[in-house]
Amino acid sequence: SKRIVVKIGTSTLIHQNGKLNLKAIDQLCYTLSGLVNENKQIVLVSSGAIGAGLGLLGLDKRPVAIPEQQAVAAVGQTQLMTVYQQRFAVYGQKIGQVLLTHDVVDYPKSRQNVLNTFENLLKNKIIPIVNENDAVAVDELDHHTRFGDNDQLSAIVAKMIGADLLIMLSDIDGFFDKNPRKYADASLIKRVKQINAATFAQASGHGTKLGTGGMLTKLRAAKLLMAAGGSVILANGANPSIIFKLVAGQELGTLFQ
Ligand code: ADP
């Protein structure tokens, strides 16, 4: 059976006004449930905890202090999982929350424990919903304790479970030869076979207000998975049912392979 990791970005899950994009979340749940019914094994890496927390607490931007961000993430993670639980239940789909720290990369024992968890969830047709454990992974200066961003996390998870495909959904149609938000004449690159310095030079900036990674972190993640023999598709998540088309082999977005 085919193993697919889906990573969905903050910009797809949260409206500009800070409210959860319930339509997108519902479509995502509908689509992933449908794929499980087709005997695909699905792992969802979901961003949006801080965004959801900001909305719930009535804040309009991330607090500067790390402990305050952690508190916002704790509130938002619960809110996000509550919504996922409700929407997935409508489609008869069970979920399990998996919060990870960089330990899964650093310690073989932790890695094996997490792998066992994934295997048993997938075996039972349960969708693991993964995020970084923000309450534990704090040290922003020592990058060894953090994944840093969910693009990286999704590639690490995909590599760890031997996924056939990582689908990254963002607020953009794919990877362009330059940032389309800055250059009107940017054109979509349909296929990337190798990621090198020239590729990184085509990505710029930090993305949207609530999004964190931007295109650089997506390229880094794609590079990591490609090196492990995996494939990555970057596509627009405005309508998450696009995942059906991507899994069926339609050429939308950018394929890194
Ligand atoms: P997400 O929250 O979905 O992870 P981000 O906002 O972090 O998304 O990253 C996507 C953004 O990256 C795009 O909206 C765009 O502004 C920016 N970007 C920079 N360079 C490029 C490029 N070459 N092609 C596409 N998008 C780019």
Automatic annotation (TrEMBL):
Domain (Aspartate/glutamate/uridylate kinase) ranges: 2-234
- Keyword ATP-binding assigned: yes
Q: List the catalytic activities from the record.
A: L-glutamate + ATP = L-glutamyl 5-phosphate + ADP
> Which residues does the annotation say bind ATP?
K7, S170, D171, T212, G213, G214, M215, L216, T217, K218
Where in or outside the cell it occurs: the entry states: Cytoplasm
Identify the pathway: Amino-acid biosynthesis; L-proline biosynthesis; L-glutamate 5-semialdehyde from L-glutamate: step 1/2
Which superkingdom does the taxonomy of this entry point to?
Bacteria
Documented EC number(s):
2.7.2.11
Keyword field: Amino-acid biosynthesis, ATP-binding, Cytoplasm, Kinase, Nucleotide-binding, Proline biosynthesis, Transferase
One Pfam short name: AA_kinase
Cross-referenced NCBIfam families: proB
Which protein family is it in?
Belongs to the glutamate 5-kinase family.
Q: What is this protein called?
A: Glutamate 5-kinase
Q: What is the lineage of its organism?
A: Bacteria, Bacillati, Bacillota, Bacilli, Lactobacillales
